[in-house]
Backbone:
């Protein structure tokens, strides 16, 4: 496919190429362009009809966007940026180096430049930073007929006209919303005021995007208005950006739960120094915390010296404890993130984890006893101590894993950091104390 | 709020209650009903206007849905179920016990009963199981004026009319889609054929919902048609259901990565037996795999006997290795899930993880050496062996953690199972071999 088109370019069959490409979906065109070298990229991009070009541009890789802006004349830039939706323009400017940003702002009219600067100033991950200004405004006194005529006149370059927003003429305050289907389904002489919905879910520009995403999920929304602190409508957020936010928040949770600094960058586009930095801090903290366990073992050196075989079961005890704790903390962290578990449920969780851990602990302890006493012929006392410790470790791990994320949330910390790695470190230390305390009591006395 | 309304009910102020409630959003009404006892629930639910009632019903908890159906007369059931969208009906029937399902099917007309049975038969998590049949069909010969009149006549109970679907009259094959805004923005004498989009993204009823969600994300869709194997249009999927699918798929990944059987059930609504079962299998497999590490330690018992302090660093080595491996595998699993990393990138990942692990490993090894040799005054040779092993463990963990998920994907397995717990078990064994091999070589020879 790519080869065919490159061949056509080389043969100068530009009209065929253009026909072939404009039949494609814009996302597919962007993916196709990524396969091309810079020379062919420019040729083909210049061939695209202006509307399609701006749309394709917003889906291209940052490298290619940068290259195109650097290669384009001022006039060409003006056309592309003029056709780009404001939220896409902002996304792209945020990633570009200063010289590219400068070149773009130079070719933007003053009014839009002011808007861009305003949008670039919204805090990262706020509703303001993901909203767009391409929406349709109506007045409440309009008839449906009048409204439809207004949309026809102004709606052509709006990102979404599936919902229209009714604002007050002088104060610009949001008064209602009208899904476009209501305009079609009702009689054209009805007044907007009588069909608009005044029970509106909206957010403020400075609200966190996580809160916005939660509202979209709760109310099954497709778009949502954003107001400033005087309740004036300043933009809307659409579901396609929220889907990205949801995935981004999930990625952050995955990274935090694996003891990393969260980052939005794509793995393959991230350099080694950044990746190393992202990982080293928490790894170091956890490594130093593991000193506790080392000290515990050193304190019980005499027990270990007399019964060396005890060392053999340390990894199994610790791994199983860590895994059991991860299971619980993962379920609770996820439940908290989805709003299925609330702070007030802490005792329910505690009780449930206690029950589950007793069941899981007993089953694993018994099976483990059979394995090491009967199969591996380890002495009865050692086998019993190992399995009793295993039971205690699992119960402890599940309770710590279940409760710590809720406590973190209560303390306004992110529950996701109370995941596997941290739980493991905490549980390890206590598990070893139980193990060696039992061992020194029951083995050395003989 | 709840108290106020309950008070009003007790005082018999039903009209005020009704007024108060119908002003609320349907999701909020459902949440409010959850706070009520069964008696008040029935009183208030019966008060709701029929359209709102069906909508509220679809957001209620399964317990309350069940209670309502059990308490309602056949006639009342007929009204509610008749107003319910087909996809909500299916979701709800899937959760209900047999007697409730029977009561509902008895009160459903034959045509709809046939449809329900057909939908219940689509495989779990398939496109068919999440689609709905409430959409607007147009014919390609219609003018816009004609189409708008058709929508006005039939569109009132369609779940989404933001996009209309153009199908062939006799074969029912999907020929194009028309966003409703095109109907409004274009001249009313234009023909549907000339404005419809024929470059359609669609899925088959048996396609997996994960594939559907990936297409929604890739192409920023709001809805998508579903066709049967003869390419006839049979339903549509809307973005609100896809948002649920995305969260569900993420939950599954979180659970698999924490060594659990994935489950869609909410934590607090799941009983202890189920939770224990969900966790025990993989915990057991991992526990038994840890036998390897026990055997390795037992094989090196003589080394350990002579230099007991070696045991003290086993937990630190293993935890750090496990955490380092989890970091890499999490990044790669997530990258694969989001499509940012492809199978062909395996060597790029390998090279990157090698570099990152050398940086991270050196830093941690040097810091650890300073800590145990200078601060804790452990002997030079032991300190050196611990830190060298630490370096090797980190490099190994990151490479295994980076590559195993890609291999899993290559083998058509779910990369998510190649996460922390499994990586830890693998890395533990190799790390201990390196550690003890070095120790027996450099410590016992003296």
Residues:
């Amino acid at each position: 496919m790519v080869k065919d088109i490159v061949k056509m370019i080389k043969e100068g069959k530009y009209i065929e190429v253009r026909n072939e490409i404009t039949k494609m979906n814009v996302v597919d065109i962007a993916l196709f362009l990524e396969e091309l070298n810079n020379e062919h990229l420019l040729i083909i991009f210049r061939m695209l009809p202006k509307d399609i070009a701006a749309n394709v541009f917003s889906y291209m890789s940052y490298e290619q966007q940068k290259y195109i802006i650097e290669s384009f004349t001022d006039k060409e830039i003006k056309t592309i940026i003029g056709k780009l939706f404001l939220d896409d323009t902002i996304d792209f400017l945020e990633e570009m180096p200063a010289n590219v940003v400068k070149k773009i702002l130079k070719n933007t009219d003053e009014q839009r430049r002011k808007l861009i600067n305003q949008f670039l100033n919204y805090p990262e991950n706020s509703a303001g930073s993901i909203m767009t200004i391409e929406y349709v405004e109506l007045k409440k006194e309009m008839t449906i007929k009048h409204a439809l005529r207004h949309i026809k006149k102004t709606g052509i370059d709006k990102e979404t006209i599936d919902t229209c927003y009714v604002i007050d003429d002088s104060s610009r305050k949001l008064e209602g919303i009208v899904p476009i289907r209501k305009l079609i389904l009702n009689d054209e002489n009805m007044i907007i005021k009588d069909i608009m919905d005044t029970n509106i879910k909206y957010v403020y520009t400075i609200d966190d995007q996580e809160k916005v995403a939660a509202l979209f999920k709760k109310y099954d929304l497709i778009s949502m208005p954003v107001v400033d602190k005087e309740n004036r409508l300043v933009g809307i957020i659409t579901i396609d950006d929220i889907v990205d936010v949801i995935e981004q928040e999930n990625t952050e949770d995955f990274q935090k739960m694996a003891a990393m600094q969260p980052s939005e960058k794509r793995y393959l586009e991230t350099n080694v120094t950044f990746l190393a930095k992202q990982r080293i801090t928490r790894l170091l903290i956890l490594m130093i915390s593991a000193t506790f366990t080392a000290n515990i073992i050193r304190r019980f050196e005499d027990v270990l010296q007399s019964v060396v075989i005890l060392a053999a079961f340390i990894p199994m005890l610790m791994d199983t404890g860590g895994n059991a704790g991860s299971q619980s903390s993962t379920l609770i962290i996820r439940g908290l993130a989805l709003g299925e578990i609330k702070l007030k449920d802490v005792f329910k969780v505690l009780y449930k984890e206690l029950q589950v851990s007793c069941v899981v602990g007993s089953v694993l302890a018994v099976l483990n006893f059979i394995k090491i006493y009967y199969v591996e012929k380890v002495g009865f006392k050692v086998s019993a101590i190992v399995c009793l410790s295993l039971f205690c470790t699992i119960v402890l791990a599940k309770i710590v894993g279940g409760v710590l994320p809720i406590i973190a949330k209560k303390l306004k910390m992110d529950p996701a950091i109370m995941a596997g790695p941290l739980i493991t470190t905490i549980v390890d230390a206590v598990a070893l104390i139980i193990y060696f305390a039992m061992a020194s009591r029951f083995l050395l006395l003989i």
Summary: Strands of chain A lie at 136-138, 163-167, 174-179, 203-204, 223-227, 233-238. The mean pLDDT of chain A is 83. The first strand of chain A starts at residue 136 and ends at 138.
